[in-house]
Fold this sequence. Notes:
Blueprint: H1 3-13, H2 18-27, H3 37-50, E1 53-60, E2 63-71, H4 73-84, H5 95-102, H6 112-137, H7 148-183
Antiparallel strand pairs: 1-2
Helix pairs in contact: 2-3, 6-7
Amino acid sequence: MALEHAILVSLLEKPGSGYELSRRFERSIGHFWTATHQQIYRVLKRMETDGWIDVREVPQEGRPDKKEYSVSAAGREALARWLHEPSEPESIRHELAVKIRGAAFDDPAALIAEVERHRAAHSERLAHYLAGEQRDFTGPGAPAGTDPGRELQHVVLRGGIAYERMTLAWLDDVLATLRRLGDDPDPRT
């Protein structure tokens, strides 16, 4: 997937400025696709040149005008083509998993702090996702199944929540194994 497609989806959900788009990436799209502010602005410029987005100047009081981006007809066509292309299941490149396997040739207990650091990061991400779900998809203003866009946003978020929970369970297993093996001076004997 190209960043262009993630931007098109976000702009179809709601037009906005480059800054607003960056905030959306931090808040929701970042669940499955990350991009820096610089990357977003660079791609917006290219998409404007390619005719995929429309730009209008929005006057602001006491501040410079801002650019508001929206998806053009050509952008909708590009997204539709991409949506209909097959996509291959992604393979995982997981540096920590290679380190865990490599610990068999060193001191397994030496990897505990690194796994704990990863566990803390995934725990924090899960808390962030759960807070977003609570804020955006539960309570009085929650969608009641009538908005397909909201339903699909929520199912992607639920996938992120499930992934983080699975990763935390795996990291707990890894930690238990490393601690057990750390008690054995030579786990291969």
